[in-house]
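Figure 3 (text version): structure tokens given as input.
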């Protein structure tokens, strides 16, 4: 059995926090690895089968913030899980920690949710079907959701501008728009988002490039639409953040390689 996934609708009570919910399972003849590019979001994963491997670390359920480098994920012949993609600013209302504590890190879920992590994971693993698993998880997390720990409006504005401009807006321009110095904006942004504004802008640009490549756009068009100076610049940035060149993307990103 190859990789099977099912996208599920988040509970309205978690609007602004959970952007996507996915159930997945996979079996193979042996260990498998995949290169995962970074994204502008926080991952919350409940491992419902054997431990998996992420960034060379064997782990069960975990949370991970923004990463500024590619990550290899894998399993040892089988994986099954329930994964949430959280809004980078909304995640703190669910997890209760600044995103700077999750960036470029895997944090075991019990370190964030306490005993509830193991209890909930066990309940999800024992659910009768995917819909039951999803309903249990969404109800439990909705009870954890609190309205505290909001990011500063200036940080939320800056992040929205970075996303909307696909990384093209300059930090100095953002600082002027919110009435802060560039240094103060960078400090507050890093605390609430997990990475510096310039790094997040790079991620936004590459995330857009990935979407265009998936849509079948030619490499030259993608480099131009992404605002890269030239094809070599595009190749360097893409490799640094995704782990392969744009030309290799379709074969490397989406095709598991035996370990």
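Below: residues designed for each position.
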């Amino acid at each position: 059995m190859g990789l099977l996934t099912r996208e599920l609708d988040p509970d309205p009570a978690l609007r602004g926090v959970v952007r996507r919910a996915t159930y997945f399972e996979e079996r193979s003849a042996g260990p498998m690895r995949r290169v995962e590019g970074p994204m502008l979001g926080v991952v919350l994963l409940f491992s419902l089968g054997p431990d998996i491997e992420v960034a060379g670390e064997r782990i069960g359920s975990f949370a991970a913030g923004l990463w500024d480098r590619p990550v290899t994920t894998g399993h040892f012949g089988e994986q099954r899980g329930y994964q949430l993609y959280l809004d980078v600013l909304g995640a703190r209302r669910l997890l209760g920690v600044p995103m700077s504590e999750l960036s470029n890190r895997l944090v075991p879920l019990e370190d964030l949710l306490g005993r509830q992590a193991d209890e909930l994971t066990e309940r999800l693993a024992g659910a009768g079907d995917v819909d039951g698993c999803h309903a249990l998880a969404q109800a439990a997390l909705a009870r954890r959701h609190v309205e505290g720990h909001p990011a500063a409006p200036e940080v939320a504005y800056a992040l929205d501008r970075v996303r909307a401009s696909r990384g093209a807006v300059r930090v100095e321009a953002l600082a002027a728009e919110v009435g802060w110095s560039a240094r103060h904006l960078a400090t507050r942004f890093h605390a609430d988002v997990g990475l510096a504004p310039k790094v997040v802008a790079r991620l936004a640009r590459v995330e857009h490039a990935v979407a265009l490549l998936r849509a079948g756009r030619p490499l030259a068009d993608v480099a131009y639409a992404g605002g890269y100076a030239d094809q070599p610049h595009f190749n360097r940035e893409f490799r640094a953040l995704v782990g392969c060149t744009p030309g290799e993307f379709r074969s490397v990103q989406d095709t598991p390689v035996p370990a």
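The CA atoms of residues 109 and 205 lie 30 Å apart.
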